[in-house]
Amino acid sequence: MDDLRPITPIRRPLADKRVRVPASKSIANREIVLSAIADGRSRLRVGPLDPGEDVHAMIDAVVALDYRVERDLEELVVHGTGAGHRAGGAIDARDAGTVARFGAALGALGSGYVTITGSPRLRERPIAPLVDALRRLGATITGDRLPVTILGPIRGGEIEIAGNESSQFASALLLVAPRLDGGLKLHIAGMLVSAPFVDLTIASLRQRGVKVTKEGNLITVDEGKVRPRDLRIPADVTAATYPAAAAAVLGGSVTVEGVDARVREGGQGDARFFELLQSMGCGVSHRGGAVTIRRIGELYGIRANVRDCSDAFPTLAIVATQASEATELTGIGHTRKQESDRVKVVADGINALGGRAQAFADAIRVEPAPLHDGIVDACGDHRVAMAFSVLGLQVPGVAIKGSGSVAKTFPQFYELLAELSR
User: Fold this and answer.
1) Which of 330, 319, 324 lies closest to 365 in space, CA to CA?
2) Residues 317 and 357 occupy one common structural domain
3) Res 84 pLDDT > 70
4) Active-site option among 311, 341, 348, 362
């Protein structure tokens, strides 16, 4: 991750650019797991753009658990095994939290030993709440941090899990719940971060015929069959925030095709980013299966709790450097345990370019200040690398240390930036 990439500035408004982004990692990884436990064959079309290492790691994880997957450049065919328990295996989740967490729950369905490991950073990230929940459902597990070894099978029942560190713990349990004897009653304790992603999991289950009810913080999933699906994975809303931010910092307009960026129940969680861009002075329109972002006038600072769309906070922070007023983003304390300590790394990156950013335990404050050239260390974090690369389109002389991390979710990201400059 020590690769250093200078960013070629554009420094002019975008002239009605049209771009595409990869398939949604969040939806793809949920659908891969559900396809594995479905009763029959599912066909998942991811399109011509590489969806990134996280999706490849999820595919490899289900294959490691002895599920059959056929793949080519644009689609996956997953042969579901229904209620049949699988053998053990070894999962390398690489740097993907979804793969470690979803893979742990999927592995716990079977009666063989399953080991899960990952990158050095992933081994530092939290998984203990999920491990504890799986133990209470009947699994035998060694370790509370990666690497862990899991021996199932787990059974259904009623269980509580904390929501303050990651929504993926709840999603992991919900995804396998229809295959548990008696189903699952899941209580989410406390404040749930990235709550729309749990709603996305519930929507994915319902679309496969699973009965799910939600009453406040109690989610009930009935035992039952999981239908196979033939599905085109929609474009990634989080990936779409980067060209959107380019229009915000440069002016002009960009249309991201194939993206449903409207805020709605069961939709992609980071769609709220586009509402926040509107609050900052951008025009946003949704039509024809695309989203268009336009900025003509100045940008304004905002004060917002972004707990529900925290993956987008680094991008909002770099847009805030170009605003006429200070911006405060709160509800982001849990991002300190993601691919990097995001709150600190984003503040350090802004300050390295002459900006004024202050990191707090659960927030960041960005004040207007002239920016200059400099090196931003992304600390191996794809979200940070992409956000500051966008800022480099406006600020000459920006270079990104660790730019290769973008392959995690957007391998063709720098091709997109080149397309914006043409």
Assistant:
1) 330
2) yes
3) no
4) 311
